[in-house]
Specification:
Elements: E1 2-5, H1 11-24, H2 35-43, E2 50-56, E3 59-71, E4 75-85, H3 94-108, E5 113-116, H4 123-131, H5 147-152
Length: 155
Amino acid sequence: MQIRKGTYEDLPQVHALIKELAEFERAPQEVTNTLEDMQRDGFGENPIFQFFVAEAEEGIVGIALYFTAYSTWKGKTLWLEDLVVTERLRRSGIGRKLFNAVAQEAKETGAKRFRWQVLDWNEPAITFYNKVGAELDSQWITCTMTEEQVQQYSA
């Protein structure tokens, strides 16, 4: 098993893992992102995300998708959007290796901060993040507007 930067050719397997994650998070109907969207957004004229993959003999078994954000208080931030390991290989160390790859990327690119979210019921992930010394902040509330809400919004 190796950890490497993701490529355009990896996207079909990456998209399948994203769907598997949505099933795990009890929200399969929420995945509206398409393979074509990911091809454009990751490898088009203005790429907005990157990813690492965990590759085994049978193909891609894990992903860590991230992007660069900016904090007015701190500066460059690497945001880990999703860390996914196929269900049958969870708790085998693959997630840690993917996490380490993104943390190393944050270090190498001079990020002032490395951030992500975790669902409050995902105890295995919370335990892992506590073990790596992450600060789990209960003060901030995540706010979201759907595509429909964005389109309907008027200033």
